[in-house]
Amino acid sequence: MDAFLRGTKRKSASTAQESAQDEDEDSTEVKLAMLASLYSNISQEVLLDALLDNSGSVDQAASSLLDVQMESPKKSRAMTIGSQTSLRSFASKSSSIEGSGTAKKPKLLSKKGTTLYLYDPKDIADHTPCSIIHNFLPQEEANDLLREMLEESKSFERVTFKLFDNVVQSPHTSSFYVATDTEVNTQKHEYFYYGGRLEDVRRITPQLLRVRPKVKEAVNKEIQTRIKTRYPDGKKLRYQCPDEWMPNAAFVNCYNGPHENVGYHSDHLTYLGPRAVIGSLSLGVAREFRVRRIVPKGNNNKLTEDGDAQGQISIHLPHNSLLIMHADMQEEWKHSIAPAQAIDPHPVAGNRRINITYRDYKSNFHPKFTPRCKCDLPAILRTVQRKKDNQGRYFWMCHRGNVPGKENCSFFQWADFDDDGIPSWGRERYKGAV
Ligand SMILES: O=C(O)CCC(=O)C(=O)O
Ligand SMILES: [Fe+2]
User: Fold this and answer.
1) In this structure, are 147 and 286 located in the same domain?
2) Which of 309, 332, 364 is the last residue in one of the domains?
3) pLDDT tens per residue across span 85-125
4) Atom of ligand 1 nearest to the CA of 317
5) How far apart are the CA of 406 and the centre of ligand 1, in A?
6) Where in this chain does the record put each Fe2OG dioxygenase domain (predicted)?
7) How far is the C-alpha of 326 from the C-alpha of 335, rounded, in Å?
8) Is residue 417 over pLDDT 80?
């Protein structure tokens, strides 16, 4: 943090570990998160512009944004929720396959500095690693779930974590749900998030349970459609698990009012494994889900050459829509819920939006199996995203440093998965079972 604020350059990385940590700390997303915590009412797009204009210096970007904030909301671009950019103005002649590292690279329609607004399910599937189902649940079922979650959300809390030397709080509230009391206990005592334990883990509620089989069926169907229609040779991606997707855990987020948001990030793969799929149900106020492809840095590491190089895409998420983040998402794209200038209140939820991300926690990635760092904590699974060298490689590292007052140890280990994303200890487990 200090290094960013003073604009000091860190030493060039010499080992794989340093390179990976450098990758982690240097990311535009961390800088964006820092700016967003200072200016929660300015859009991510404007924050990113400010970073680019100031060659990646958070310090200078922060001062320049002071003026933006004083000037007028004009530059913060009020968005009409639900608007869609005409695709004709972005028309591309190439018919591309949305893909992974191994797939043919799609010709992206969004351009540097622009946002492409998408609503139509076909456009979303064509141009992002996501698919969407509108009006997913019968109306009454959606409202029952919404009402239940609004009640639950009264006791949701902000997550506190450390961003370098600063302690920050998530700009929205959340909680975590699993199926049984035993799992609640395991989650509280054996799993680690942001280098520490989760205190608020809850037993799945009646409405979450009622909806779960429908999410499971729809997501599995969407996975198969995506494989057949968009992946090279109609085959699953390398490291993607071929097993049926089983939603056994759910993070629930509440965004109370237009300014609550979540900054650009990729979801943690530590307990989901590589090429994870996530089913994300939106209820209440419609908000914008922004996605952008991670563009690796060239040799000179200049932010101006890689940040926002291909623009961002905004997906409109209305009440009762199920968004599926497919296997080509977390490793190669970032996503966020942008702060809004204005929202349309929802008849049941008022200014609040509830989001439920159903996830498949894999038994092979239980912390009793995954590598432990020198602090004796289960390590976190990351991907090299922004360095051209080793891009896409997975590694395990310490994440103790996310806890206020603690530092990361030097633990680093490249991860080894077979083509189905099974780690070496998982292969041993299967052998043992036969
Ligand atoms: O609220 C959303 O739609 C996204 C939430 C999210 O990205 C997350 O929980 O990781
Ligand atoms: Fe996420």
Assistant:
1) yes
2) 364
3) 434 344 333 333 333 433 444 444 566 667 899 999 999 99
4) 3
5) 27
6) 246-362
7) 13
8) yes
Same structural domain, 135 and 13: no
Last residue of a domain, one of 19, 42, 76: 76
Q: Which range marks the domain in which residue 30 is found?
A: 2-76
Pair 64, 132 in one domain: no
Secondary element (H or E) of residue 44: helix 44-53
Q: Which atom, in ligand 1's list, is nearest to the CA of 355?
A: 1
- Ligand 2 centroid to 433 CA: how many Å? 34
Cα 418 to ligand 1 centroid, rounded to whole Å: 29
**ipTM above 0.90?**
yes
Ligand 1, closest atom to CA 323? 3
70-74, 150-154, 305-309: range with highest mean pLDDT: 150-154
Q: Is residue 330 part of a domain?
A: yes
The verdict on the CB of residue 337 being under 6 Å from ligand 1 is yes
List pLDDT tens digits, range 331-340: 999 999 999 9
Quick one: 249 and 342 in the same domain? yes
Quote the pLDDT of residue 28: 64
Q: pLDDT digits over 250-301, tens only? A: 999 999 999 999 999 999 999 999 999 999 999 999 999 999 998 876 644 4
User: Ligand 1 centroid vs 192 CA: distance in angstroms?
Assistant: 19
- Residue 186 in any domain: the answer is yes
Question: What are the CA-CA distances from residue 113 to residues 50, 75, 309, 311, 331 (Å)?
Answer: 11, 13, 8, 5, 22
**DSSP letters spanning 63-82:** HHHHHHHHH-GGGG----TT
Residue 374 lies in a domain: no
Rounded Cα distance between 189 and 174, Å, is 19
**Amino acid letter for position 140:** E
Tokens, residue 116: 């492409």
